[in-house]
Amino acid sequence: TQKKYGNILKLAKSMATQFQSFILTQQSLGDAFAELGQKSPDLQQEFMQNSETQKCLSKNGESLLNALNFFVSSVNTLCNKTIEDTLITIKQYECARIEYDAYRSDLETLAQMPRTDSNTVRVDDAQQNYQQHKEEFEKLRSDVIVKLKFLDENRVKVMHKQLLMFHNATLAYFANNHQALETTLKQFNIKPKSPTAPIVAASWLEK
């Protein structure tokens, strides 16, 4: 699952980066049209119309880019914090299980040896080590169960919100509905950023 979400994150970031470049090109084209319109009286109306069109499209594009960046940021948090934290706990649990099995095996082996003073001391030590690692193992097993449940609940909650936002923003953009785009940004508390703002850095799941 983490790899699949990592792939979504990678693709969404690639889309945001390419779309960011597209918007900047649109803005430059709009400026170029406007400049030529001022210097070409015979084509001024045509140049200015195209300039305004590109500026309008780039403005809507900035809104969609803000939505894209919000999507990327949220999925990045899910992948690199929530999922990663759960995976770390699972790895700790696996190590604890191996150690627990080893100490249990040692205790079982010593318990079968002849009852001498030396062996009794060794059995007592082994029993303490076994009990300590058993408690650590059981605690981590409980932690894993809790974190897996939290991860699943959080994943559904986050992705439900993000997918709805992504869908609404994309539809509004291609319908050239600036008002719907702005409404979507406000609905999901997305703060506008400059189209030149950097996209989230690459995550460990994308590498």
Automatic annotation (TrEMBL):
A Gene Ontology term for the protein's cellular component: trans-Golgi network membrane
Top-rank taxon, per record: Eukaryota
Protein source organism: Sipha flava
GO molecular function: phospholipid binding; protein domain specific binding
PANTHER family: ARFAPTIN, ARFAPTIN-RELATED
Domain AH: 1-186
This protein's encoding gene: ARFIP2_1
GO biological process: intracellular protein transport; regulation of Arp2/3 complex-mediated actin nucleation
Protein name: Arfaptin-2
